[in-house]
Amino acid sequence: MGARLPQAGGGAGEAIKDDSQLRQKRMLEEYARTLASATRAGGKCVYTFVPGNLTELVRSFGLHLVLPEINALQSAMRGKSRGYIAVAEKLGHSEDVCTYVKCDLGMMKSGNIGPTGEPVPKPDLLLLSYTGCFTFMKWFEILREEYGCPVVMLHVPYQGDGKITESMRRYVVDQLRGEVIPALERISGRAYDEASLSERLARSARAEEDLVWVLESAKRRPSPIDAYFGGVYYIGPIFTAFRGTEEAVDYYAALRSEVAERLAAGKGPVTPDGEMARERFRIVVEGPPNWTSFRQFWKMFSDEGAVVVASTYTKVGGVYDEGFRHDPDRPLESLAEYCMGCYTNINLPGRVEMLSRYVTDYAADGLLVNSIKSCNSFSAGQLMILREVERRTGKPAGFIESDLVDPRYFSASNIKNRLESYFQMIEQKRAGRPA
Amino acid sequence: MSGALALAARAEGIYRDYRLSEVRAWKERTSGLAVGYMPIYAPRELLHAQGVLPVGLMGGGDDLEIIRGDAYYQSYICHIPRSTIELGLNGCLDPLDGILFPAICDVIRNLSGMWKLQFPGKLVRYLDVPQNFTPEIGGRFYRHELEEISSEIHARGARPYDAEALRESLAIYNENRRLVADLYDLRREQPWKVPTAELYAILRAGLVLPVDELSSMLRDYAQAVLADPARRPMDQARVVLTGSFCEQPPLGLIKTLERSGCYIVDDDFVQVHRFIQGDVALDGDPMESLVRAFLTQAVESPTRYCPGAGAFDPSRAARGGELVDRVGASRAEGVIFCAPSFCDPALLDQPMAVKAVERAGIPWTAFKYSENTGQFQVIREQAGTFADSIKLWTGA
């Protein structure tokens, strides 16, 4: 069952959404309303980032979470990012740097009204979870100067050698104990309650189990989901403020049922333009999506019968399909391992291995890289990733370029041309002809 | 040619020799290992103590034609990784037994993984320096990183770790840092004696020379410039240049700034020589001293977390505070923000530093470059106008 909704993000007409998408949308909107009213009533607010977020820990102190990346991408989907970026660039922020940062700063300078129309509360604390992205550090240094509020840094070491060592784990746990928890105690006025944290982590693990089942349903033919465009809706609750809540557990259980029904009925994914009739191409995608023309971008795939069966972007907030689950019996160690395991914290050889495995395990026709201009964490090295995955799997790889939230870097005709050529190449390869 | 000029010319020849002839010769003489490191900081003392030659890598400048390197990077990524890859692929870096990639930004971080894939036989180590500066937390983690590096180079044939050898190396590098600091002091006091283009060439050469040879060169150069009566003051504007800590501008750009009427009296070029401020303690456990120096004696860098104002301790300075202090200490009249295109650390930091500089009433200008920038006319006009405006209007 689905519904038609007006859809921004570069689309025309009404978009079809399935029940889980509608539910996810309601959850996020309700959260924005609750956030605004709770902080007006004296509740305290913590800003943090999606990769390496410590949602369960923060909420165990009764604190509210704001994720500036989510605000930025939602601003882009509602057509507001162009103006916000212009505001930031007029203030001296370089055209060369991350557009999430500029969009967030521009929104703040424009009155800090969030994408849902609710005012975004000021931070009482910036929780700088420095995971897999250098820009995060500068972003919160900039916000600190704007808001004049405290920051607590959690430095998450990178998996430079492709593994998590005991020294790395201890470093993160020591920071949690010695820096992060005391800061949260000071802001909230509450003592750290490990039992409450463990309960939340147990709920996280249940939701994660269902999310993985949903993502892995794409191994079936036809895939009942699109694991990139649809996937960003599926990860919404668990990557934002809901991980560890009953709402998230319920959402993922319902999502699993919905996808199970589609699977049993042999149906393909629901796209904004309706149910995909025929699955012609199965693609693995590396890199974040473009948010300013999200629907148009998706349509370029769905019009060709291309389904994304696995994506790395849906792993930036946690790589659960590799087996990680939050562990209530080792709460802080488990949070440390979660942070270090996020996708952009994995070294390039690890990313190549993961993508090659996706191509094989999901019986994909190839790999497509969407290279994002303002995200060096993802983009630096992607041309090498592309060649390595192609070499290891024998499947053709394609390359397109766009940006996160800057509409100036979304060239629809150029991307469409490249995608069409790429799909043609896959067909030729299937037919045994040289591409 | 004066002695100073001859030394600077020799230094320029050494640093522009991207085939690393000095390193090759050193290896032939000693049969030791040579390990490269990317900007901006590496624990050179530890490598030195185990008989390894540390070799600083700063890209290919404007000397290198990028043929294959561009196939590895999109147009919106800075230039240094593509020239570094080019140097690796064309065999220039063959004498290196490995490379350390310090945590500085996502591009250099990811380059470490690319190196692992491209050069599987070499030592490739991502050096994750701590952003937590508490000795019991960040210090312990960093010590472990150093101990792993020590074990890895030993496994490849370096001498085993020895505390006394490290203590001796700390002393040797302390002396080297003092010599560099002395030259920076001399330039600050008499910038006409120490043109930045010359100082820069010597510091660059010092990346590939053994530390004792660099120390000799620094001494000889200081003596030569002090003895040179032809170096007389000119009416130039005193500026601090900032933003050039990783990818370096071409030497021509530095000369252009000086010719346009600027005395560069402080900068962040080739920062590894000055990243640690002052001496590393020689008493106690030398490994711990190296760790503590990183935690407590490092320069403020855009790549290093700045606890800053607004933290629980509001007395701490905000971003840009150290830059303002350096302007004061060097009696500079202006700041030039000179950052590489697409350099996240420098460009994300810049608006905060600009605010601090403006709050302090210091004139500033800004431009971007890449290491192979070849046209300097626009920069010359901009810097010249800036210098003129300082001379004409400061204090008016």
* Overall helicity of chain B: 40-55%
Q: What is the arithmetic mean of pLDDT of chain B?
A: 95
Count of individual beta strands of chain B: 8
CATH structural fold name of the largest domain in chain B: Rossmann fold
- Secondary-structure element string of chain A: EEHEHEHHHEHEHHHHEEEHEHHEHHEH
Rg calculated over all Cα atoms of chain B: 20 Å
Beta strand count of chain A: 12
Q: What form of chain A results from the Cα inertia axes?
A: globular
Distance between the termini of chain A: 41 Å
As a whole number of angstroms, the C-alpha radius of gyration of chain A is 21 Å
In the CATH hierarchy, what is the architecture of the domain at 21-193 in chain A at level 2? 3-Layer(aba) Sandwich
The first-level CATH class name of the domain at 21-193 in chain A: Alpha Beta
Low-confidence stretches of chain B: none
The secondary-structure class of chain A comes to alpha/beta
What portion of the residues of chain B fall into strands of 2 or more residues?
A: 5-15%
| Major sheet: arrangement of strands of chain A | 4-3-5-6
Report strand order across the widest sheet of chain B.
2-1-3-4
CATH top level assignment of the largest domain in chain B: Alpha Beta
Shape estimate of chain B: globular
Number of H- or I-type helical stretches of chain B? 14
